[in-house]
Amino acid sequence: MKRQVEEALEELRKGNFVLVYDADGREEETDFFIAAEHVKAESIYKMRKDGGGLIFIMLKYELAKKLGLPYLADIIYKCSNKWPVFKELIPNDIPYDTKSSFSLTINHRQTFTGIRDVDRALTISEFAKLAREIKKLGDVEAQRIFGQRFRSPGHVPICIATKELLNERQGHTELGVALAEMAGITPVMAGCEMLDMGESLKKEEAMKYAEKNGFIFLEGYEIVEAWKEWQE
To answer: What local confidence, expressed as pLDDT, does residue 18 receive?
Structure first.
């Protein structure tokens, strides 16, 4: 495993940010990554000020299944007979991938508006706490507790990694969950895209930002290589 990846894993364990660029020819975007269990209000502030994109959760497939969380695209398909407009909105033309990883949006029930830094930090960190707690619970009990603590719709979108992770899809969601798995932390990550005026922040600019601010910068292929090595 490359030293750069090992250093990134240690940063995640410490609760620090890592910057991850997916790949040339894909989204070509760099995202802030941080372990969800370490998210605080200042983490949200940093991502929205220096990132500017959507602040979201990345979740391991098995945990999503235990919580009964569907892919949003599947909800749209299932509901299209009752609400015909959904037939018109089916996401069958994503230019960079064949499938969206988006699921529901949530707020913790103790949040106020849900969008404030303190609110989103609470939602994300408490969701990671929930993910740790439900590992040994049955599905029904896990979903009951989920509903007790969270409501939907909310201000934090959940993205579900594919079942086979990087062997199936190599989007930011899978890259984030793979890093969490290799780091030995709860496989729930928070992320945010880095944007510029009118476009995504160029890779070169993201690399400069990482160097200036002392963040590890990784490209998707480095994580994929480390993941394959880690699985052997």
So the answer is: 99
Strands of 30-35's sheet in order across: 102-108, 150-160, 52-59, 188-194, 30-35, 18-21, 216-219
The pLDDT of residue 176: 98
CB atoms within 10 A of CB 188: 26
Which segments of the chain have a pLDDT < 50? Answer: none
Question: Which domain, by its residues, includes 74?
Answer: 3-231
Rounded CA separation 153/165 (Å):
26
- The number of domains in the chain is 1
**According to the model, what pLDDT value does residue 202 have?**
98
CATH code, 44: 3.90.870.10
